[in-house]
Amino acid sequence: MNGTDYAVAAYLITALLLWGYAGSLWYSGLRMRNTDANDAGPRSDMS
Amino acid sequence: MTKLKKTLMTGYWLVTLALFAFAIAVVFAWTPIEATMGPVQKIFYLHLPIAINTFLACLVTFIASVGYLWQRRQFWDDLAVSSAKVAVLLCSIVLLTGMIWGHSAWGRWWTWSPRLTFSLVLWLLYVAYLVIRPSIESRERRALVSAVYGIVAFLDVPLVYLSVKLMPDIHPTSIQLAPEMKLTLLLCFVSVTLLTVGLIAARYRLHRIESAVGAGLDLPTPTKVPITQPGDAA
Amino acid sequence: MMQVIQQIALLTGKDLRVEARSRQTLGLVVVLGILIVVVLGLGLGPQQVASGQAATAVLWVAYLFGGVLCFEKTMAVERHDGALAGLMLAPIDRGVIYAGKFISNLVLMVALALVVTPVAVVMFGFDLSAAPWGFALIMAGGFVGFAAVGTLFAAAVSSSRLQGGLLAMVVFPVSLPLVIASTQMMLHLFRDGEPVGGAGLAVLLAFDAIYLVVSWLVFEVILEP
After folding, report:
1. How many CB atoms lie within 10 A of CB B215?
2. What is the percentage of chain B residues whose pLDDT exceeds 90?
3. How far separated are the first and last CA of chain C, in Å rounded?
4. How far is B63 from chain A (nearest CA, A)?
């Protein structure tokens, strides 16, 4: 592996993490829109 | 959410993503390659802005924690936990990109040098913040413990910094930058900051809705989140 | 001023008297400390143990776990039979309650250290005679900061079932600068033979000062029966 590979790997990992987090937010938002107040059970606090 | 608000939010995200993509393109296509370290130095344009934004997110958590202890309003707690989550995300990225750079520069994924130890302890501090929260059942008690922890953890940051300075160091403390490099760094910093603010805001909005649902209050976005009564579904 | 000292002495005396009569906490933490030292001694194997370098790290592990148990127990005593509500109704400042708890915890931790340290010194062949006062000074600096944070969080984390693991989760990360600073100073002291002082001691003292003040301020706001 040379320097460019390392740099590209770092940028890819960053993009993946950010995209994953944004995706989990998106999903939570969608799920919340489909949830009514009555079955809003305990949720994970980790996302 | 009103239509205007929604348009504004979509616009914000579009601008942020476009700027981010542009910044990355600039980093790889336009910025000159650093003479001594070579192309691997391009990690720096991501590493440093995200590290600074980690501190900003921690600062938001600190301010929100103080606000909670002062006013005891739920929204402070929601803001604190939102920015703590983003801080952990950003700190993970700092650690990972730093490790990749370290493996390229020093041939090892991890060394117990001061900066690395510092980032790791910072990460641990805020991960602990997130994992202790679900263990406390009472909402007020959870917010209270989190607020105290948010304050103490932030005060801990300079102490961690000072204590790790006692260890032997190989991390670079300053890099000579060409004007183009400074411009790229600024561009990256702006786009990462926009992204951080956007993520905290999005997370915060969801937490507000969750709190409102949990407390059985009126929802802040009644048009988008209809509350159905038990009989309605039938 | 005299009155405040009297009140603190009264509260601390009460805590220590309860402990002296029940002997619940100290027995538990001392045995736990010895167990930790033995387990780590077995795990590290003869080579590392013989070098003596590992002893300070092992001692810190024992102190951290033992200390968290102490903080938990001294606060649990107050949660029994609504004792905390009575304490809060008493005409004393909340800061005095904090100081009383803090000193009780400190006394318990020193008692723990007085038993566990000789055990580790013997088992790890750790030559304490090189700088006994330096060792005592560094550990005292560490204990004050650790007890300051621990007392605060023991009050904040209420009687939830997960309290044990929870308090440790809260207190350990916050105490890491203490551990880093004191282990680095111990290395300088025992491996390189440098005297105690300088940046490391400053970090310890800064930690102690900041957390005593912050805890004293925040304790007032968070104390609830």
Report:
1. 10
2. 29
3. 27
4. 21
Chain C CB contacts of B150 below 8 Å: none
Q: Do chains A and C touch (3 or more CB pairs under 8 A)?
A: no
Secondary element (H or E) of residue C134: helix C132-156
CB contact under 8 A, B136 and C156: no
Distance between CA atoms of C72 and C65, rounded to whole angstroms? Answer: 11
- Cβ-defined contact of A3 to B37 (cutoff 8 Å): yes
Tokens representing B165? 């300075």
> How far apart are the C-alpha atoms of B51 and B92, rounded to whole Å?
10
Q: What are phi and psi of B28, to 5 degrees?
A: -90, -30
pLDDT in tens, C160-209: 555 557 888 889 999 988 888 888 888 888 777 777 767 788 888 888 99
Chain B residues with CB inside 8 Å of C166's CB?
132, 135-136
Q: Evaluate if residue C37 carries a pLDDT over 80.
A: yes
**Domain residue ranges of chain C, discontinuous segments joined by +:** 2-222
Which chains does chain C touch, 3 or more C-beta pairs < 8 A?
A: B
pLDDT, one tens digit per residue, over C68-122 is: 988 888 888 777 777 777 777 878 888 888 899 999 999 999 999 999 998 888 8
Across the interface, do B144 and C156 touch by the CB < 8 Å criterion? Answer: yes
Q: What is the pLDDT of residue C158?
A: 63
Contacts of B24 in chain A (CB under 8 A): 11
Angle between helices C163-190 and C55-79 (to 10 degrees): 150
